[in-house]
Fold this protein.
Amino acid sequence: MPKYVYDFTEGNKDLKDLLGGKGANLAEMTNLGLPVPPGFTITTDACRRFLEDGRLPDGLEEEIAAHLAALEGQMGRRLGQADDPLLVSVRSGAKFSMPGMMETVLNIGLNDESVHGLVKQAGGNERFAWDSYRRLIQMFGKTVQGIDGELFDEALEELKNGRDDLKLEAADFQRLVETYKGIVREQTGQDFPADPHQQMRMAVMAVFESWNAPRATLYRRQERIPADLGTAVNVCSMVFGNCGMDSGTGVAFTRDPGSGHQGVYGDYLQNAQGEDVVAGIRNTMPLQELERIDKPVYDELMKIMETLENHYRDLCDIEFTVERGKLWMLQTRVGKRTAGAAFRIAVQLVDQGLIDLDEAVTRVNGAQLAQLMFPRFAGDAESARITKGMNASPGAAVGKAVFSSERAVELAAQGEAVILVRRETNPDDLAGMIAARGVLTSRGGKTSHAAVVARGMGKTCVCGAEELEVSTKERRFTAPGGIVVSEGDVISIDGSSGAVYLGEVPVVPSPVVEYFEGATDQDDELVRAVDRIMTHADASRRLRVRANADNAEDAARARRFGAEGIGLCRTEHMFLGDRRQLVEDLVLATSDAEREQALAALEPLQKADFTEIFQAMAGLPVTIRLIDPPLHEFLPDYTELSVKVALAGDDADDKDLRVLAAVKRLHEQNPMLGLRGVRLGLVIPGLFAMQVRAIAEAAKAVEGARAEIMIPLVGAVQELEHVRDEARRILAEAGVEALVGTMIEVPRAALTAGQIAEAAEFFSFGTNDLTQMTWGFSRDDVEASFFSKYLELGVFGVSPFESLDRDGVGRLVRIAAEEGRRTRPDLKLGICGEHGGDPDSVHFCHRAGLDYVSCSPFRIPVARLEAGRAALVSEGSDTR
Ligand code: ADP
Ligand code: MG
Ligand code: MG
């Protein structure tokens, strides 16, 4: 039978799969000799089995009982023991942190008898014991029994009657316990379970079940966390921050998660229990003040934070509690941070000698880099500033203020940019946070729900803007100076500075983009960090990075961003605009002479197009794809033209009639699978030849030009042979050397790659079409119609158009790469779909042995970084 339960002394930080992050790190801290309240962890394996079978797996209860007995022995008291109770918390904890998404119940083991035992244990502190008891019923009722938490909150508010919770006395809490028990009875038809073992058992199952709660499911989808991991459950003996002013609870970071700078960053709350800090029942104090309140505890905490940083070699966040002057560590993990801080911290740690540059590159990722390339607000907007909150998650967001999650979702669905404004957010706001451009709260610090979740999502967030009075009911907020912002009014928030502006503030480019553009100013610490990391990523990567660009301007930008060539130069737009007429003439040509005339007119224009691009790329390879899309795209709309002709009747224009006939002839039910790509080249004599001649002439005109001619939509080697032979002849006539290769974007091409490689000098995987044709999805249709359903059902975790489908499309890529190279060992392999700039897909391309990825100019830095990371991380390791 598998082992389902691990004592904190048995685990370690590398067992996150099995023990969850919280459990693994509690074990790690225990083994480091840090003060962790004893306890044990029930594995994610037990959770998965429970969720599959709908009952606790065989043997689990016995194992829990044995570990509980050991814990009771160690603590010298039994769970819920009437005269001297052991109390425990039952805490969720999955492999990847999902802040506030799942459940935790504190103070398990209290009932009408043991509450008196707790009074005794606490030296007669009645207030503390009854406070703990009411908290148990409240948390248990809400999370285990599914009772609406508002009911408990309202009863508490009524009791407080405007008073601070510190003003409540033992008798108040005792009364509240009775009220709460009444709520439980009313809502469930049963008494609150007095049996401590039953409490624990029910709480364990509730934590397991919370894995599949809607908000947890939504969060996982957003964060791309697999749905089948399950959560572990931690049973941890209680320590109490709510037994007086010499006690308290807090959260902290070992360095600033916004800037990366070292220092003391945290919040502390006296006489309170865990959840109170995040929930914001009272205003927390900055952690520095603990030094004044209890110097020894503060000093010990600082030392522990240093120990943790050195041990994890990274920024950590922690939860701790002080029980009457004794410090307890309740949680740690490698902390979330802003994108900018990620780069700065990685480099700081290198300078501190804690990690090397290889590791620094793996500590950041392309998504973070992409975030840093967002524009920022112009600095001269100060007059529009209405207040300042905390800079919780960077970026510049502009949108209409909305005051509820539902409204945010609604307006965003209509294409509106919105800013979600809340007093504070809670897990039910998740959908609204996803829909919004940014989040603004008036309460809560950098560790509040809004801040943590927004940072995780890379969403702009300003929190704790305390000068704002937010009224959800009236859908408006007021700011100093009598300013009122109602739903629909535009505001701008700056997550990097915390500023909130009225109206739309203009934005300026990011310094990181300016650095990529070639600005040499290295005063900015962030720019310096990015520079060091990118330099090392470039030195480490095997994959080359090219750009998709089809004009000189994009080509030039791509080069500045570090492109080592053009992987895809599309030629179809070169046929639009005022050249449309020439194409129409070509299509309508009824004789060879007419057709040749149209082609002859196009050729010099094409030559000029290619010349510019070769010049911009100065000797770097340029892969030019011969014309791809269906011809009807160049002709007038069928319906419009038929109406025009019909209305004209007998007077219809002769030309219109001819065009209409052509449009009719070329009309396709399914253009994506119709006359396009190589098929078009074979059907219209001279079209491809004209393009190849233009390429050859342009290459001749530009010193050092390196042309690669790419044939689209090939499915059979015979198609390619026809075009290649003609291209070779033209190139030879012009005395120009160029590679001739093909796109691999039709499944048949991938499956017969061994044959196709006989005629192709390179393959470039066109993964947009390849995905479309492998799945049988019409991209333009399916994304709107049923992809959200598929994501919901878990058919895939992310759209296969966004991130390469490794199992299906990826398999075709691997087959083609392998069989192509068997035929032609020096076959050059690249990818030129949108996937070329997607981090996950870049890693796939590295592992599949491709030579390069090609992506849009703005994604080039991302691809360079990810290619470096792919070379530096070991196969199968987590890159999250
Ligand atoms: P989350 O993952 O939402 O942070 P936790 O399991 O960490 O949930 O618990 C919620 C709060 O309760 C935290 O502030 C934590 O520090 C506190 N807490 C958990 N277990 C104990 C315990 N045994 N004694 C005191 N406080 C606890
Ligand atoms: Mg926690
Ligand atoms: Mg294609």
In short: The chain is about 45% helix and 15% strand. The pocket of magnesium ion (ligand 3) is lined by residues 712, 745, 766, 768-769 (CB under 6 Å). The mean pLDDT is 92. The longest helix spans residues 592-617.
